[in-house]
Amino acid sequence: MNTETIRAIGDQLYQAILDRTTIRPLTDQYDDFTIHDAYNISLRILERRLEAGEKIIGKKIGVTSAAVMDMLDVRQPDFGFMTDAMRFDGDMPISTKLIQPRAEGELAFILKKNLLGPGVTNADVVAATEAVVPCFEVVDSRIQDWRIKIQDTVADNASCGLFTINESAAISPNQIDLATCRMEVIKNGKILSTGVGAAAMGNPLHCVTWLANTLGELGISLNAGDIILSGSLVPLEPVVAGDQMTVTVSGIGACSVNFC
After folding, report:
1. Which backbone phi and psi does 252 adopt, to 5 degrees?
2. CA–CA separation, 255 vs 237, rounded Å?
3. Nearest CA to 11 among 36, 54, 48, 40?
């Protein structure tokens, strides 16, 4: 895929974000569409966001659990960039004026040191992490009806939408077994779903390690101060205005969000 086409698709997806519209799956439109092409398209979207005044505050890995893989029929993780325009404080209602939003509970890592792969290990991630916190991510897709393959979601910046974290529930990764911690999601007063840390590639640490090494091969580091979203432990849940959700992680704490 040539540079002109990559820029044009990136601009189309960025405009879809602004207009809250969708486009046909890119994998239906282009033959020989590679993940490398998709990553370069996501960089064009990021370029447009930065030109508009947004700042990078972290990165994310998605599609890490079997529940989400089965739901989206995507069989490998995706990755993307998080900006300050995507973050909502805990006391601020999250707008559902996206396109086709779905909420997911996960763990976020706040880094105190840089990580640059390849060669990053789980021990390196622990040493570089200031704290782990509960998180809600509201993913969104600019691809019609979530009919995505891995190239579609990587090009669409890992279906990034919005997110919120509860920093008051921060805990050192040395203080908890992330593989066995239990997550419970409550929606509108009723238990919606449960999961454990092992649902995300065996351990959320594996997810961050994978992300550091995958982005490292592309010359991108995870940086001190970054918020790293490590992937959902539970199925994605469509949300509408008026919904209220709480995610509680054993040994860590809770994060709540109201949708408007």
Report:
1. -120, -65
2. 16
3. 48
Q: Which CATH number, 3.60.10.10, 3.20.20.150, 3.40.50.970, 3.90.850.10, labels domain 3-258? A: 3.90.850.10
Nearest to 203 by CA among 113, 259, 100, 123: 123
CB environment 79-107: b (16+ within 10 A), e (fewer): bbbbbeebebeeeeebebebbbbbbbbbb
Cα–Cα dist 166/7, whole Å: 36
| Helix or strand run (H / E) with residue 5 | helix 3-19
User: Does pTM top 0.85 for this prediction?
Assistant: yes
Q: How far apart are CA 214 and CA 45, in angstroms?
A: 19
Structure confidence by residue, pLDDT tens digits, 73-111: 767 788 899 999 999 986 678 888 899 999 999 999 999
Return the HEC string of 37-76: HHHHHHHHHHHHHHHCCCCEEEEEEECCCHHHHHHHCCCC
